[in-house]
Amino acid sequence: xxxxxxxxxxxxxxxxxxxxxxxxxxxxxxxxxxxxxxxxxxxxxxxxxxxxxxxxxxxxxxxxxxxxxxxxxxxxxxxxxxxxxxxxxxxxxxxxxxxxxxxxxxxxxxxxxxxxxxxxxxxxxxxxxxxxxxxxxxxxxxxxxxxxxxxxxxxxxxxxxxxxxxxxxxxxxxxxxxxxxxxxxxxxxxxxxxxxxxxxxxxxxxxxxxxxxxxxxxxxxxxxxxxxxxxxxxxxxxxxxxxxxxxxxxxxxxxxxxxxxxxxxxxxxxxxxxxxxxxxxxxxxxxxxxxxxxxxxxxxxxxxxxxxxxxxxxxxxxxxxxxxxxxxxxxxxxxxxxxxxxxxxxxxxxxxxxxxxxxxxxxxxxxxxxxxxxxxxxxxxxxxxxxxxxxxxxxxxxxxxxxxxxxxxxxxxxxxxxxxxxxxxxxxxxxxxxxxxxxxxxxxxxxxxxxxxxxxxxxxxxxxxxxxxxxxxxxxxxxxxxxxxxxxxxxxxxxxxxxxxx
Length: 502
Ligand SMILES: Nc1ncnc2c1ncn2[C@@H]1O[C@H](COP(=O)(O)OP(=O)(O)O)[C@@H](O)[C@H]1O
Ligand SMILES: [Mg+2]
Hints:
Strand order of the largest sheet: 6-9-10-3-11-12
Helix content: 25-40%
Number of helices: 20
Strand content: 25-35%
Number of domains: 2
CATH architecture of the largest domain: 3-Layer(aba) Sandwich
Bound molecules: adenosine-5'-diphosphate, magnesium ion
């Protein structure tokens, strides 16, 4: 009999149907892998089991008996512990306090028993002895830790619940291989104790090494559950994509006219290596859109920023328009004709609280080496780019923050078009942008390519890449592990390259 079973569970957030029909069944003594592409509803399903999201419909049973999970406390009382993908740590508290946070040992039923707390936390900290890295200590403040170390604390916190059912929602995304191995050793121990575990990961090697069964979820719906021993990577990826592997390989978009008529190389990258990426080599010709694909955080952004002089480089070279770029700074890159647009507007894009015109013109000042310019002349310069993007705003002197996300992003892009660059580096440029603004942006991007710009596009949305890129370089573990060109550009190939072991 299954330990935990969710049947026909659904959940809508407003107009978004996050989970349409989620089924998941976990047995004692098994690691049950849950897999599906981004946004398919995995976290929602886990949160429903852990009581932090209330389902709209469906049934949950424990040991065969229907249960009502009233909330996170209720789930814990029923023996369900969870590792949250977005972590649930208190940044200002110590490692040991965080580990025990869900179940603080009390003295006289009132005061925290510090000694008991330290002793209990120490047991879980010891599990990761030797792999937790410098600065990791029971009394370290969680906010000061690295991303991998915070993820370890969240693992320890989940383990400290000692729950018979443990759910791990992408617990290994920031861990190094030694940490993953240690974690898997721990999971094997828990399996032997008869715990029931759900494990979410995007890594095929991890899944096939630790999993007993795998459930695939697609567009909010459970599509298959198989024993790991009875399936293989291609089958699982086919289930995620929704097409059998044989059929998925056909019908790519035709090679674009731009690709056939591509001009001279305008950007060339050779052996570029630095923190988070290594040995990256590729070339972009005028008129070409080269896509960066793969799971989030595999080095795509770092490479774009490194080309632009905004991320460290330890080896390799960048050539722009035939000239080697020796100085590593955005200023040097801009003066050589490079432009960089990030979807992270709060960090890389807008100048908060300043008028629209000031947000449009900093690059123009730099490239033209202007000191002062007449506002009317600047507006005249900016107008064509602003209009080409259908940017809507009331006046150039209004603050940038008065615009919608999509219109802010159009201003950030228009800023680069006043003086035409040669290479446009797009770092997930449509993050948080609505659909109509997205369409405007991509029409413009294709038009710019047709006019002879070389474009590099990193998108976290596979559909954007497949629809716009002439070639796709798939990043995996900081390296380009595959290049998809022509009719190789299919969802299936993109998924397979993204999800397979680096
Ligand atoms: N709190 C929320 N509010 C609105 N939409 C949400 C919320 N949480 C998730 N969603 C949406 O529900 C869908 C499923 O999300 P999620 O369960 O996080 O997927 P996964 O974990 O598989 O990536 C996505 O489209 C996501 O944007
Ligand atoms: Mg998730």
